[in-house]
């Protein structure tokens, strides 16, 4: 195995048998070496192979700029996350999370505090990812020697959610705001407080995550069984009236027209969450 490119003393690239580029890391693996030299395989600590060419390019740029220790911290967090969740985490997390942690530590050392405006919502909507984010802070403290504020646990949680949905951070922030706004509409329409540990609430938030993703990406959904929609609209008239308010909000904020299929599922989820609340009251 020969070196294709030396990024720094600790990072090189090579070509595998299929002529695909691999990123290889190891302390001092490139010291005194150049392209075309053989790789000392005993020094290999980590191998990356990102199928997305654009993501691979970003990873190479990042690894050339930051210390190896931050890649190791990020790797520890990602492995912990994959062990403690059954959700698929996209490889883009290696770029986004490593980059975020490096600059979060750098900002902290410069005395620059960034407040997380979505911390409360992140705790509510993504509790599993937030717990992983909290553990990530302890990993950073152990490896880097810096105790970052709780806000960073929320930021790390959103990076994990991004990697599950394979979305960029600004998109994830917009999705979270969308969920928050719709929940407020339903809450104030019925004058209720949510039971956030209930299955109905979990299902509703999960539906809103993917609903928001589609709305923000302007992906239209085709209508299917119109007779079912008419039945739901009649039988769940209170929930449908609330769904119409959500529809007006989406039209105003995102210039998207909801289909009967959208309104069908929205009405059913609203009905379930309100019915569950009223049953328990």
UniProtKB/TrEMBL annotation:
Keyword Repeat: yes
Domain of life (superkingdom): Bacteria
Example of a GO MF term: RNA binding
GO biological process: one example: regulation of DNA-templated transcription
Keywords: Repeat
InterPro entries: BglG_antiterminators (IPR050661), CAT_RNA-bd_dom (IPR004341), CAT_RNA-bd_dom_sf (IPR036650), PRD (IPR011608), PRD_sf (IPR036634)
Domain PRD: 65-170, 171-280
NCBIfam families: LicT
Name of the protein this chain belongs to: Transcriptional antiterminator, BglG family
Organism: Terribacillus aidingensis
């Amino acid at each position: 195995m020969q070196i294709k490119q030396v990024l720094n003393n600790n990072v090189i690239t090579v070509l595998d048998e299929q002529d695909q580029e691999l990123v290889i890391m190891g302390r001092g693996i490139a010291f005194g070496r150049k392209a075309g030299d053989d790789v000392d395989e005993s020094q290999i600590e980590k191998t990356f192979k990102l199928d997305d060419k654009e993501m691979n390019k970003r990873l190479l740029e990042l690894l050339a700029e930051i210390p190896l220790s931050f890649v190791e911290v990020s790797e520890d967090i990602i492995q912990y996350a994959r062990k403690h969740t059954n959700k698929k985490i996209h490889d883009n997390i290696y770029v986004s999370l490593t980059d975020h942690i490096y600059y979060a530590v750098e900002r902290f050392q410069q005395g620059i505090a960034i407040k997380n405006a979505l911390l409360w919502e992140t705790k509510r909507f993504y509790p599993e990812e937030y717990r992983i984010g909290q553990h990530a802070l302890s990993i950073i403290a152990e490896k880097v020697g810096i105790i970052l504020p709780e806000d960073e646990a929320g930021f790390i949680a959103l990076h994990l959610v991004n990697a599950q949905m394979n979305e960029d951070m600004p998109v994830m922030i917009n999705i979270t705001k969308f969920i928050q706004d719709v929940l407020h509409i339903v809450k104030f329409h019925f004058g209720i407080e949510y039971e956030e540990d209930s299955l109905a609430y979990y299902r509703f938030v999960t539906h809103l995550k993917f609903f928001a993703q589609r709305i923000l990406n302007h992906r239209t959904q085709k209508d299917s069984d119109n007779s079912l929609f008419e039945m739901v609209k009649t039988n769940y008239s209170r929930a449908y009236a609330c769904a119409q308010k959500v529809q007006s909000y989406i039209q105003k904020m995102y210039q998207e027209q909801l289909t009967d299929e959208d309104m069908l599922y929205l009405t059913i989820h609203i009905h379930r969450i309100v019915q569950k609340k009223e049953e328990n009251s």
